[in-house]
Amino acid sequence: MKKTFILMALLLSVGTIMGQVDKAALKLAQKEAKAQMNEAQKISAAITAKINEKAATDDEIITECKKGQALIRKAIKSGAIAENKLGDAYKISADMANYINTAILNKTENKEPFDTAFFFSNLKTLTSALQGEIKHTKITTGEAGNENYIKGRKFNLAQCGNFYLYAAQINGEGKLYDKALEAFDIALNYAKIYPEVAGQLKFSIPEDKIAFHAFHLAHDAKNYEKMSELYDKAVQYAEGADVTKQVNLESYRERGDTAAWASHVREMTLKEPKTNETYIQMLIAYYINADKKAGPESNLMMKYVDDIIAVDPNILMANYGKAYKLFETEKYDEALAAYKRCTEIKPDYYDAWYQCGLCKYRQALAKNATVSSIKNQTLAKQTLEITKKLFGEAIPFFEKARECAPDEPQKWAFELRQCYSVTGQAEKAAEMDKLL
User: Does residue 406 lie within any of the structural domains?
Assistant: First the structure.
């Protein structure tokens, strides 16, 4: 029992000693923080006086305020500043950070070199100090109150949002991509980070344009994760939407992920086929190659164009892609119908008219190839008549192609000569000969 009492007494004694040590350490820390704060205040007051007298150079302002900032930063980080003095500490920090910010901006106007990374770090110090001052300053009203002063500080904090856009720009130009993207991120989330500026924040450019610039900077940095994060907002910037879509899609190819590229193009084109016909054409070409590699059973391209046509039957390239596939597989009647649909959508579409003629022309050639093997003379004659009829049916389509490209006879004259020759129109066949 006595041992237990002795042990308890020792523990109580140790606890008392530790408490005394903690109190002593706290007092020391408070004393040190107070001294740092006072010294920072002296530096701030001295440089303020010189600034008011217009006797301080930009370099002097930056140098002196850096010294003061180092002191006040230590004091605030120590956690030893009394609660009722925190607002004053943040005010000192904000004032000096603002002096530095102004001095650096003066340098930019005078086209003098400056440290872009430091400009950004000081800007973060400025906005966090303004926020700290606003949070830890008790608002008083009346003639001697500080209510209007705090409103002014909130206004200053709101204005700083545009400085983050400048920080993003200059760090991006210097290829300091991480800092530039961080600056854009702060700007895009400014109202969340600094709710004190609610209703006052006004950027020099719309938010979607900020996201647009951030997205393309992320692309320059090959930061594909950040690109994905910014894409939905960036593409809302209408003037740059097309290039944003293109860069986003091409980024998948840069990564070597063509499957992801195809997936995103498919999703985008099915959602808005009319505004993405160029990408429809690109994906058709992609699927054609994929089908060739996969073998005759693969039907990716036809499935895709059918899906597009189901969404909008007037998409030219989807109909042409369908016609191409049908023609390639020698389904000439179906291909003809698909090519005719293309001419309905675009009446001056040379390729579609030519391909319509070629459907009949190929059928005629195939039929003609069988004539010599038919022993029954009557049947052979009937087959020859069908051949001539098919050549004749091809003529109007080739003539329409001719109307679309009158100065390019190499595109249609050969087929027309053949058709006119077979159908007994020697004079017209001779005319085509002269054009070849």
Answer: yes
Are both 266 and 335 inside the same structural domain?
yes
CA 98/CA 152 separation, integer angstroms: 14
Q: Let me know whether 283 and 300 are in one domain.
A: yes
Residue 60 has what pLDDT? 95
Q: Find out whether 150 and 111 touch, Cβ atoms under 8 Å.
A: no
Model confidence, pTM: 0.72
Tell me the percentage of the chain whose pLDDT exceeds 70.
Answer: 95
The residue segments making up the domain with residue 292 are 257-339
| Domain CATH for 294 | 1.25.40
Looking at the structure, do residues 328 and 351 belong to the same domain, yes or no? no
Q: Is position 371 within any domain?
A: yes
Helix (H) or strand (E) holding 399: helix 377-404
pLDDT of 292 above 70: yes
Q: Mean pLDDT in the chain?
A: 92
- What average pLDDT does range 380-392 have in this prediction? 94
Residues 268, 240, 221, 167: is their CA dihedral positive or negative? negative
Q: Please, are residues 44 and 61 in contact by the beta-carbon 8 Å criterion?
A: no
Answer whether residue 306 is part of any domain. Answer: yes
Number of neighbours of residue 167 by Cβ within 10 angstroms = 26
Q: Do 368 and 416 fall into the same domain?
A: yes
If you write DSSP's letter for every residue of 133-202 in order, what string do you get?
A: HHHHS----STT-SHHHHHHHHHHHHHHHHHHHHHHHHHHHTT-HHHHHHHHHHHHTHHHH-GGGTTT--
Percent of the chain with pLDDT over 90: 85
433 plus 360 within the same structural domain: yes
Nearest to 161 by CA among 122, 191, 118: 191
- Over the stretch 249-264, which tens digit does the pLDDT of each residue have? 899 989 999 999 999 9
- The DSSP string of 11-31 is HHHHHHHHHHHHHHHHHHHHH
In order of 358, 414, 416, 429, the CA distances from 433 in angstroms are 19, 8, 10, 6
Into how many domains does the chain fold?
2
- Reference 128, options 168, 69, 170, 83; nearest CA is 69
Helices (H), 174-314: 177-188, 190-193, 207-220, 224-234, 241-254, 258-271, 277-294, 300-311
Q: For residues 279 and 308, state if they share a domain.
A: yes
Q: Which residues, 6+ apart, have CB-to-CB distance to 299 below 8 Å? A: 291
Angstrom distance (rounded) from CA 166 to CA 107: 14
Structure confidence at residue 2 as a pLDDT band (50, 70, 90): low
- Does residue 296 lie within any of the structural domains? yes
